[in-house]
Design brief:
alpha/beta; seven-stranded mixed β-sheet; Rossmann fold; binds S-adenosylmethionine
Length: about 240
């Protein structure tokens, strides 16, 4: 396996197949991982009557669990492109009524045909799409009227300090730790580069407005990742 370069977007789900068994252990070492997911999930504002939620790029289900922690009555469907990440999720949620689908984030219309959701959540998903705009359009298309999309992801503010902090975090902690724990180098290099390539918070907010959202809000997460991790909420008429 060539372990010296980064990945292209189409290779990302396969790379997650390689780390699936160690993924939860890795995220458990990231302080506040679950708490920040719950903070973003709260923005879904589900109600018992509007409880259908699609978790795009659900991985092993950490984001799905965050939704259920905040809204115990939620009816989640998790979608991911990695069979092995989904296999871990299926095992972890064996007794819970969650549906799991293997599929790609940029073809939600084809995967869900006439199914509609009251909200779409994507945690560390939008950045992995070949075209974030296309993924948002697909998410919009599977929303019921009045639905909302919540996006949780790493994001830089365009200033040199934010990029320096991100590079230091990746090169100093995430990449060496990932290599030791999973023997995978490419995926963690890809993580570093994909955040740099993702654009700034302002650029992403502008792109989100282009998919027809009536309102787009952004909040940076508090805590040690403040300025590097944020939540967008897109509401639709
Ligand atoms: C960093 S994990 C996030 C998992 C979970 N949402 C969480 O918060 O822990 C990113 C997930 O996105 C999936 N993924 C990446 N590109 C994808 C795509 N184009 N379509 C569907 N899933 C994709 C990967 O397989 C991986 O499970």
């Amino acid at each position: 396996m060539p372990n010296s370069q980064t990945l292209n977007k189409a290779e990302v789900p396969q790379a997650f197949n390689r780390v699936a068994k160690r993924y939860d252990l890795m995220t458990s070492l990231s302080p506040g991982y679950g708490k920040s997911l719950r903070r973003s999930a709260a923005r879904l504002e589900l109600t018992p009557e509007k409880a259908r939620v699609l978790d795009v790029c659900c991985g092993t289900g950490a984001s799905t669990q965050a939704i259920l922690d905040v809204f115990p009555y939620a009816r989640p469907t998790g979608l991911d492109g990695s069979e092995s990440m989904l296999a871990v999720a299926r095992k972890r949620f064996a007794l819970k009524p969650v549906e799991w689908r293997l599929g790609l984030s940029e073809s939600l219309r084809a995967t869900f045909a006439a199914e509609r959701f009251d909200a779409v959540f994507t945690a560390f998903g939008l950045r992995n799409a070949e075209s974030p705009q296309r993924m948002l359009e697909e998410a919009r298309a599977v929303l019921a009227p009045g639905g909302r999309i919540v996006v949780h992801d790493y994001i830089l503010d365009g200033k040199a300090l934010s990029r320096l902090r991100w590079e230091a975090l990746c090169r100093g902690i995430i990449e060496p730790m990932g290599l030791v724990m999973t023997r995978e180098r490419q995926l963690f290099r890809y993580l570093r580069q994909s955040v740099i390539d993702f654009g700034t918070e302002a650029e992403l907010t502008a792109l989100m407005r282009d998919v027809g959202a009536s309102n787009v809000t952004f909040e940076s997460q508090p805590g040690w990742l403040n300025g590097l991790l944020g939540t967008w909420t897109l509401t639709f008429p």
